[in-house]
Each structure stands twice: as C-alpha cells, then as structure tokens.
Amino acid sequence: MLYWAQFMNSTNKEEFEMLATKDAGLKRAYERLQEISADPERRREYEAREKAIRDYQHQITSYWKRGERNGYDRGEKAGYGTGIQRAKRVWKLSVEGKLAEEIAETLGISVEEVDEILK
C-alpha cells in the first residue's frame, strides 16, 4: 500500500521505474502510464474518460444534494403540519377541561410540551 501511495506521488521517471520493480501491479500501472503518455490519441481518450468520470461524479453529488434538500423540506413541512395538528388537539382537550397531565398522557407527549403549546 505504501508503494502505491509513493507511486501516485512520484514526480519523475526514475521514481516510477524504481517503484515498478517493487510490485507487479505497479509495474502494470507504470506500463499503462507509458502507453497513455506515448500516444496522443490514447492520451485524449484517457482525458475524455477522466472528464466523463468527473462529470458523472459531479452530477451524482448534485442530485444527491438536491434530493437531500427536497427530503429535508418535505420532512420539515410534514413536521410542521404534525405540530399544528398536535397543538390543535392539545387546545381542544384543554378547552374540554383536561389537565396538562391528562392531555400529555392522552397524546403521548410530555407535560412540558403541553405547557409550551398552551403558553
């Protein structure tokens, strides 16, 4: 693993060649790197592929963020609606003469929540 990290950070031909002797996978990677570097057409293909990968990753990230925001907004709206419904039920039970403890037990919420709604 250390050799791969060194390979990725290498800056000159001698380092690449030395590391290629350490591992068969590094040797194949170095040979592929030489092929790509030698042929301008392959270099363009490689760059086009890398660009396509970056574009795809950017697109996925953008969609993820948009979906996350959409889900957050929908959840917030649903929670707000639920909160209003809960407040209406608390007020209704309060008007009926129920005590905060009874309301809390009926609705399955804390007495503090009931008191907060009735403020």
Explained architecture:
- The protein has helices at residues 2-9, 13-20, 24-38, 40-95, 100-107, 111-118.
- The protein is mostly helical.
- The chain starts with a helix and ends with a helix.
- The relative contact order is 0.05.
Helix-strand pattern: HHHHHH
Uncertain regions: pLDDT < 50 for 5+ in a row? none
Mean pLDDT: 85
**How many distinct helices?**
6
The biggest beta sheet is recorded as: none
Strand content: under 5%
Q: What structural class should be given to the helix and strand makeup?
A: mainly alpha
- Name the overall outline: rod-shaped
Distance between the termini: 63 Å
Total strands = 0
Whole-angstrom Rg: 32 Å
Classify the helix fraction into a percent range: over 70%
Which terms would index this structure?
119 residues, mainly alpha, 6 helices, rod-shaped
Topology:
Layout: H1 2-9, H2 13-20, H3 24-38, H4 40-95, H5 100-107, H6 111-118
Helix pairs in contact: 1-2, 2-3, 3-4, 4-5, 5-6
Question: How is this structure best summarized?
Answer:
With 119 residues, the protein is an all-alpha fold. It contains six helices and no strands.
